[in-house]
Amino acid sequence: MSSRLRVATIVTRLEAGAGEVALRGALALDPARYAVSIVAGSGSRLLGEAASAGLEVLLEPALRSPISPADDVAALRNLTRLLRARRDDVVHTHSAKAGALGRIAAHRSGVGRIVHTFHGLPYHEFQSAARRRTYIAIERRLGRITDVALCVGTGVAVEVVRRGLAAPERVRTIGVASGGLPTPCVPRTRARARGLLGLPADVAVVGAVGRLAYQKAPEDFVAAMVALRRPEVVGVWVGGGPLAERMRTLAGRALPQARVVLAGERADVREVLPAFDVFALPSRYEGLPVAIVEAMTCGIPVVATAVNAVSDVVVPGRTGLLVPPHRPRLLAAAVAHLLDHPDEAARMAESAKASLGDRFADRTLGDALTAAYVGTTARIDGRAAPDGPARAAERRTRPPVAVGETDARPLPFPELEP
To answer: Which residue numbers delimit the Glycosyl transferase family domain (predicted)?
Structure first.
């Protein structure tokens, strides 16, 4: 028998920012005190990384982002069955869909403590008012069964409190962790990074890292590169996703006014970051992107959209430049300013790197999770949370396995992720 606290971390996709933070948090915990399992609907290289690190990895293919009543009901049923059988002490959910289904399943299963991380918010200005109202109502109901709401960045935490998505005393602001320092941006590493990307050593490069998905607005990146009117400048997007085919078409149409290279998903992101002269992220909405923190740590000047918690790290004129979302011409103008004023860009990059301190170190995230998991806050519905580690059986490290068979039945709420 073991006295380790048993934690089930549930995430829709073990990939991109939410997946990185979920995995980094799990790995930052003391293995002598915590036995952490990862439950994911899908994932990429991070699944293997989690298993190689000794974490138990469970797959539930029905846990998917798109609207699918049959899959949603199947995922809820399977997660509930899984959690009842496992008898975990803590369930920690990440991302909107896993956050909804995972918290309901944990509540139904009688899990002692339920923690949710808001990496961003499932509603935004680019949705209809009716859809936003629906999402807010759902989140408010879920907040009643949530012991601790961890918010990635101050902007997210402020919105969670303002909208009443969780009781104020349950809201905590955390940072992100990226699992190590990126390669510093110096001439030697820049030349090597450009070699890895197949780029000439003497061109100016504007880069972005993120999923090719609606949230990240990659089409605005291409539009900004066209609006830049500098065909000698190369735009590079690192990351894959559902819009990959569309982006290849847009990149082709941008020629010859702009050259945009789609580098796809890569395991060596930290090694290729030094290739960028400017990092530009045009997201429609965000929490606090890991990619921006990594770019700043690398020493690259940043332009980003003024959404959610991005301003926690991108302070206009001091640590980078902010532009409104969905305004590619303004994004292009900000990028041009940094390219044309390298001394100012270098000053901002240095200031950004210095400002990060240890806020985004793995140990800082680990400390925040420890406080969330062992706190004594009673839930609004009156159920008591655990005061400390519960006794649990030791588990062998296993490769990813399926959680359960799928089933179908209408679900009374829509998809929570665009």
So the answer is: 198-353
pLDDT tens across 72-91, in order? 999 999 999 999 998 899 99
Q: Which two tokens stand for residue 392?
A: 């649990």
Looking at CATH, the fold of the domain delimited by 187-356 is given as Rossmann fold (3.40.50)
pLDDT for 36 beyond 90: yes
**Domain boundaries of the chain, sorted by first residue:** 5-177+361-402, 187-356
**Do the bridges between strand 278-281 and strand 34-43 make them parallel or antiparallel, or are there none, so unpaired?**
unpaired
CATH superfamily for 5-177+361-402 is Glycogen Phosphorylase B; (3.40.50.2000)
Distance CA 129, CA 143 (A): 21
Which of these, 245, 226, 244, 246, lies nearest to 235 by C-alpha position?
A: 226
Bridge-based pairing of strands 113-118 and 34-43 is unpaired
User: What six digits make up the tokens of 263?
Assistant: 């580098």
Average pLDDT of the chain is 85
284: Cα separation from own chain's centroid: 14
Q: How far is CA 122 from CA 18, 91, 159, 190, 414, in A?
A: 13, 20, 12, 37, 11
Q: 28 with 363: CB under 8 angstroms? A: yes
184-211 core/surface letters (b: 16 or more CB in 10 A; e: else): ebeeebbebbbeebebeeeeebbbbbbb
